[in-house]
Amino acid sequence: MSLNLIYGFTGMFSLGHAGFMAVGAYVAALLTMPAAQKEMMFLMTPLIWPFNSVQWPFLPSLLIAGLVTAFFGLLIGLPVLRLRGDYLGIATLGFAEIIRVVANNLQGITNGALGLKGIPAYANLWWTWGWAILTIFVIRRLITSSYGRALMAIRENEIAAESMGVRLAYHKVLSFVTGAFFTGIGGGLLGSLVTTIDPKTFNFLLTFNIMLIVVVGGLGSITGTVVASILYTVLLELLRPIEAPFSIGPLQVPGIPGMRMVVFSLLLMFMIIFYQQGLFGRREFSWEGLPGRLGRGRFRQEGRAR
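User: That's the sequence. What structure does it adopt?
Assistant: C-alpha cells below.
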C-alpha cells in the first residue's frame, strides 16, 4: 500500500522500499528485545546506548520504528524528489543499497552480518491484519481528500498541477514520508514474524516482490494491491513444490532453487505485455458491485450528488 501511494497515486518511481523496511525492522527489533539477550548477542562490539538498556512493548516500538523510518524518508526525499522518472528510481535504489551496506558494517547497532536473532514473535494474525486494515483506511482517506487529488494531479502532469497552485515539493514529500512510515511498520512486523533479520534480508529482491504486487494489482488501485498481495502470497506457497525434485513419467526433473521467482518474473512480463494497467487498473471495489474509478476526477462525491 505504501509503495502504491508513492508510485501509483503520486507517480514517483521509487525502488528504496527495502531500505525503509530495514530501518523499521532494526529499530523495532532493538526496542523489543530483552537487554540480557542483546548483551549476549553483541559480543564483538557492544550495543550502543540507549538500545542496550531499553525494552518496550510491541505497539510503541512499531510506532517509533515508523516515525524513525519517516524521518529517513524526509531526509532522503528533500533532495532526491527533485529528480523524476528513472533517475528517481536509481537514486532511491542507491539509498536502499546504502542502508544495506551500513547495516552490514555498523556492528554497534545492527550486529553486522550476523544480524539479530531471537526477536520476540509478537506479529501474529491480529497484529498483521490490524495494521493492514489501518493502512488501507488511512491511505484511502488520504487519497479521497484534497491532498489525494493534488497527488494524482502531480502523477498526471506536474507542470499543469503546479500551474493550478499545487505545491509540488510539499505534496511529494508528504506522499514519500507517509509511505516511508507505513513501510517502517511493515519492516517491524516482518522482523517480529520471522524472529531473525540480517542485511541480506533487505536486498533488491524484496523491493522487486513489492513492486510485482503493485504492478500486477494496478498502479493507483487500493483494491488491486490488496487482491494482488493475497494472490502473490498464496501462489508463493503453491509453487513451492516446483523447486523440489519431481518426476514426469520416466523423466526425472532435479530441484531448481529460485524457480518460483522465475515463474513470477514470467508473470510480470505477461502482465506488462497483455495487461499494462494491471488486474484492476485504477478501478476500485464498490459495495454496489460495480468497479468505480478512484482517479481522474471521479470520486465518491459523484455518487453522493446523484
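The chain has a mean pLDDT of 86.
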